[in-house]
Fold this protein.
Amino acid sequence: MQIPKEQIEQLWHKYLHNEATPAEVSTLLAYIDAAEGEQLDFVAEGLAGETPASKGFVGMDATQKAELVQQWQAMRMQQPAVVRQGNFAGWRKWAAAAALLVMASGAYLWMKRQHAGSQQVVTAAVKENIQPGQQGAILILADGRKVVLDSLGNAGVIATENGTKVLLENGKLSYNGANTTTGAMLFNTMQTPRGRQFQLTLPDGTRVWMNSGSQLRYPTAFAGRERLVELTGEAYFEVAQDAHIPFKVSIAGKAAVEVLGTAFNVSAYANELWRTTLLQGSVRVLDNYHAQTATVQNSVVLKPMQQAVVTAEYMPANLNKSITVYSNVNTDKILAWKNGLFNFDGLSLQEAMQQLERWYDIEVVYENGIPEIPFGGEISRNVSFDGLLKMLTEADLKFRVEQGRKLVIIK
């Protein structure tokens, strides 16, 4: 297929910046599939981010280039394949390009074993019977009744509390009634068990997306000087603006996030660091916060694209309890769960497995200690458990599946 290199380079650039038309994408894919000789070299350079428009030439040899293109073609055909080769500087550029190219046909995941000096990219296949998570939740009403929301669909009004109607429409919960109350406050609790996510709108209009393994307690109508909700687990908030009544998220009675109107994500699972990430607006993160007395030991105000990390209650008492703030965080990574993805970039094996445990409702056990294997890549949350096992197998992770939804990591 004879196409000037300059044109192919332009197609690469447009594709990686999501600017290519369907016709241009088809041209690029056809060129790659038909490449041979010098064209094969140029394709490999493009896959590795080595075109003249990129910075730095990593200098792969002919065998490495052929393996790289072969790997891409295997991914295009949805065939399991693994690349095992030495480190080279363009790896992450290639991984980004390959991820875009295979997004329509599968998922990718890589693990780098430091002791072996090798890297693997794998594709999803199918094998076991454990299913990925889905939309659903359990609503606990003020009188203690539990309503399983997974199968109700468009149920309409499912309860009325103090004149406020609790509505379930299009798989989302909302409240229709007075936003404030002068009588006794009634509270609802939303639970998303392992393998479930859910979206709801609070009585004040605040929208909340809840990740699996989470719980949110809130009033059916807000009263007083603040809008207080209590969270364990992870949720993304788009807060309805009310300059006179601040919105506050209490975390296990030990920390809190206070806002006026903004968009932010809070991750506060047990046995993990508590992280608050701000996307829009402004929030104040409070550490050693006591809900009953409203006393605060530490606090920090975040700007957009910043993340505050608070040491969780389970951590040893001798650790520094101050709040750590990180700037220019990758918000796409933080909100991957909300957008139907897992993003494992920069995570350890244990951190990645914690996410998988909650979504697939499994238990991960480490038979010989926790391997120190950096994770990377991005996969759909719709990937079957079978596909997940295939990824781990081809990435040379040794494991077995035992009865009781248990995944035992051997090494």
The longest helix spans residues 62-76. Residues 110 and 270 are 27 Å apart (CA to CA). The radius of gyration is 24 Å.
